[in-house]
Amino acid sequence: MSLRRATTGAVLALLVLATSADAAEGPMRVVSINLCTDQLLLRLGNADQISGIGPLSRDPKLSVEAARAATVPQVAASAETVHALEPDLVLAGRFGATAAAAALERLGTRVERFRPAASIDMIRDGLLRAGDLLGPEARIRAEAEVAGLEARTAALTARAAALPRRPRALMLRADGSMVGPGGLAHAMLVMGGFDNILEHRFDPAGRARRGGDWRVELEAAIRARPEAILIESMPGAAPALVHRLPRHPALARLAALGDMAPEMIGVPGNLLVCGLPDALDIAEALLPVAERLSARPVAAAEGDAS
Amino acid sequence: MSDAAIRRAAWILLAILPLIVGWASLGYGPSGWIAPDPWVLLGIDAPSTASEIVMLELRLPRTLIAMMIGAVLGACGAALQGLTRNPLAEPSTLGASSTAALGAVTAIYFGHAGVLDGPAPAAAGLAGAAIGLALVLALGRGGGLSLILAGVGVGALATAFVSLALTFAPSPYATLEMVDWLIGSVADRTLADAGLLAPFAALSLLLLTGCGAGLDALGLGERTARSMGVRLGRLRLQVVAATAIGVGSATAVAGGIGFVGLIVPHALRPFVGHRPGRLVPASMAGGAVLLPLADLAGRLIGDGTEIRVGVATALIGAPVFLHILLTRARAERGTW
Q1: Which chain A positions have a beta carbon within 8 Å of B174's beta carbon?
Q2: How far is A142 from chain B (nearest CA, A)?
Q3: A178 forms bridges with which residues in the sheet?
Q4: Distance from CA of B154 to the nearest CA of A (A)
Q5: Which end of chain A is less crowded, N or C, counting CB atoms within 10 A of the terminal residue's CB?
Q6: DSSP state, A109?
């Protein structure tokens, strides 16, 4: 191919790109370098809009869009590789790969950062913002997602409000930490009709140390007598010491206590990683349990686990 | 009171103290006091309340593990010091804790299908400790501080490899666990862990107590010991094997807990008349007091976020190490 023909081709290609971008189609080359924005992009964007997503969203342990993620190109979250794709929009997280995002901005790329969602409001805002950024079709999809989210939230809130009392719950993450106030998992616990024992029975100053989740002594958590223990599952996770805690025999002993035994509930971990409406699946699965437990008499906590 | 009476009192104290500390470690914890119920602890009654479950499944394993590891580390320290005739020798200064951690880490994070439980990590830790000790004893033959320097070198290398292995481990949590492996912790262990450790610890302690007479003779010098019929090669092998078995399995269960083998013999040496043979069983009891006590302190001081037991032992142990170093330097050169 002669140089002249190549140049003409390139110019034509650029013209095509420019015109389609002008036609209010939204950005044509979008790259996401964060697990959660990956999933927003996969759910709301058009397949031909996606130039690359991070590697984690292909992992079904972490992502609810693993199947769709396998169909689009993967890219490492480094400024150099992302810039080589010449994206007109990069979606990034507020935390993680911050250096790559800042470098891309210095290179003149538009970077939009998303905060990890900790509430229904934040999920809604994230969906609508991503929809706005990705173009009119994405905006329509985002509005449909939000409508579903709000309908489900309203139904859950009404049912939870009708409970005679909220049973106490403890949630163990797959990494052995315990869900404290402030995160999405806590929000789902509360929407599911439960009272998180970490909100009341433990030093709230501990919250600041570890964000939403932190590691409480297992013995203190057990003696606070939770009526339900939620255990996040991450099947196939690579071995690490942290995964031993949710499998500790003390929990199996508790389950064998007869009428005083807390209800043990497995929670699929991929639903709680990112702010997507799928997190509500957890609250919807928990509510019937909360309704059943709230009919039981209250068991007193043991020890001084305050 | 005569010296003999003081010594007798010290031995009685050493026999009773582990029981008292063990009882306290079962009863106290961050969630407050639980009266230890012997029937539940012995497995005769099944636990019927959350508190009894906490005592049986959380406090009992960590107490047993801390006592076993304390005994092993104390006795290993005393025996290694007797063997090398160097008061700074102990499993962590000789690098054995770090090489054992390297073995266990490799088995756990890169094992087929990920072996978190079972004897594989302990076996790998044992191999790591054996290789590390053999290397250090071979490299540190120059006498004096060269043994400790060899231990520092091999230990630093092993520590670097542990960090490297955890950085490349497939789990995102592995790097967070670096601290557990390099500093050591007995938190949230299970009775199965204690059961796994028990035979290794027993074998190690048995081998070490059998070294007493040989170590006493060696205290008089190599030539004298040989003339007394001590087979030095066999004695060396016995101490190294016992240390590898004990420290390897201890590290696989609780990470590299340092300085116990330094502090305990140092504190007890005056009470046993500076005889290495007697120092081994005394340090066994002393370690079984010190480690559960350090663990209990870490649990109670930490206010919900517990301080790892290895941090507590290092806080006491490092100054002791420096103290011994300075007194030795002064004794050798007449001045610092």
Answers
A1: 238, 240
A2: 31
A3: A172, A214
A4: 25
A5: N
A6: -
Question: Which of A35, A274, A281, A34 is CA-nearest to residue A149?
Answer: A281
How far apart, in whole angstroms, are the C-alpha atoms of residue A221 and residue A228? 12
Answer whether residue B35 shows pLDDT above 60: yes
- B303 to chain A, closest Cα gap in Å: 9
Whether residue B32 and residue A304 make contact (CB cut-off 8 A), yes or no, is yes
Which one of A217, A251, A257 makes the best mutation probe of the B interface by having the most chain B beta carbons within 10 Å?
A217
Q: What DSSP line would sit under B195-236, residue for residue?
A: HHHHHHHHHHHHHHHTTHHHHHHHTT-HHHHHHTT--HHHHH
Percentage of chain B modeled with pLDDT above 70: 95
Amino acid, res. A112:
E
Rg of chain B taking only CA atoms, in angstroms:
20
- By the 8 A CB rule, do B102 and B124 touch? no
pLDDT classification of B167: cutoffs 50, 70, 90:
confident
DSSP state of B211: T
Quick one: closest CA in A to B60, which residue?
A: A250
DSSP state of A243: G
Q: Tokens 């206590």 sit at which residue?
A: A257
The answer to whether the CB atoms of B31 and A240 lie below 8 A apart is no
Q: Which residue in B54, B171, B299 has the most chain A C-beta atoms within 10 A of its own C-beta, making it the best mutation to test that interface?
A: B54
Q: Which residues of A touch B33 (CB under 8 A)?
A: 303
Q: How far is CA B84 from CA B215, B223, B263, B267, in A?
A: 10, 14, 17, 18
Yes or no: say if A218 and A192 are a contact pair by the CB < 8 Å rule.
no
pLDDT band for position A203 (cuts 50, 70, 90): low
Tokens of A249: 């025999």
Q: Is A172 helix (H, G, I), strand (E, B) or coil?
A: strand
- The amino acid sitting at B240 is V
pLDDT digits (tens, 9 = 90+) for B115-153: 667 788 888 999 999 999 999 989 988 766 788 899 999
User: A30 phi and psi, to 5 degrees?
Assistant: -110, 135
